[in-house]
Amino acid sequence: MGMAWFGRKKEAPLEVEEVEVAPSLPEPPPLNEAGLRSMQDHVDYLLGLVEPLNPFGMGLLEAWDQVLCEDLESLVDVPAHTTALVDGYAVRAADLVDEDNQRVESMQLFDGEGRIPVGAIKHVTVGEKLPPGATAVLPSTFIALEGELARVFETVTDGEYVRSAGEHLSAGEPLMRVGEVVGARHIGLLAGAGIDKVFVRPKPRVVVVGSGEGLVEPGRPVDADQTIDANSFLIAAAARAAGARVFHIVVGSNNHAELAQHVTDQLIRADLVISTTGGRREDYEAMVQTMSGIGLVDSAQVAMTPGRTQTFGLIGEDNIPMIMLPGNPVSAYVSFQAFGWPLIRKLAGADPQRKLHRGIARTGFRSLEGQTHLLRGIVTNESGINRVAQVSRQHALSELAEANVLIVLDEQTAQVRAGESVYYWKLDED
Prior knowledge:
The protein is of the alpha+beta class. It has seven helices and 29 strands.
């Protein structure tokens, strides 16, 4: 009979109750002393929550304006064969001189097929393929025909008056690199190089949602308690300019159930959702609460002017990214340029970092240290110098329509004097 080790009885293992951890977004970046998140930290945080779309093969025409995901080389020589550059006679250049390197007096005309015989020439026209054995073309003015013979007045050397095979492109020659955007002229180049399909990332599908109680689309009758929706049209156009394939809806309500239904219905065709309102605070809060009910949400006060209040979420079963922009049209547009534009670029596999351009301030600008100010501006080129001025209009949409840049005053800048350097983003920049 066996004995238990040291006479102890085996104890049943304790059952550990598994605690289900609620899903959440990654830890957000730290706040500054004023309790605000820096604009760059917010950009980096959002970019860290999305990945580029998966690439796939497309025909050349469908691939226009999309980001390439492979290096491309020519599949063929262009031209494929050595051809005549002028009307004349195909010749083996070495046959035009004798053993003493003197020009021969005449050559035999050849009108047959196949390799050109030694001491013979064959008539060719511009663009015609040279017969085997020929190394050059004698222009018609270099000879005089005398029956079956051609009297030679001038000689040529190998390669003269011909377009060699692969002269324009040789098989294996690099054409485009990963990350380049396929343009119309690229498509011509690729087609000529024998390429019919390319591996690209598709344009990001962006659904722009305008929402709010009493919000109506342009062109419809407007009652006293209603507002024409300009913001979502503005953002939809800006998203298209950023390279997105845009879908646009307007929901004239701030009811949570209605908003949730409309937004979730759009997720099947969305890689990114961008929402804005007609400007009422309760409409903004209604959409934020709706986002919280269908996904994970990050709301932040960002150290920027305009557009301090920013909300982002991953919504639905597939965690589709969604941005809730402020309701003021200038704040909405500036926020899109600061955060929506980089997200669209990241999804497309393009560089999401905005390029800072430098100009000379036409007038002075004031800012508050600790915040990034994005001012509407206009840049004009005067004698090769980019002059930057602020645009200021009472009507916000008129101001945006006139601007062609956003002037960027970073957190360390309190003042820029006239004549000093100032930096800006170009609007609708490729």
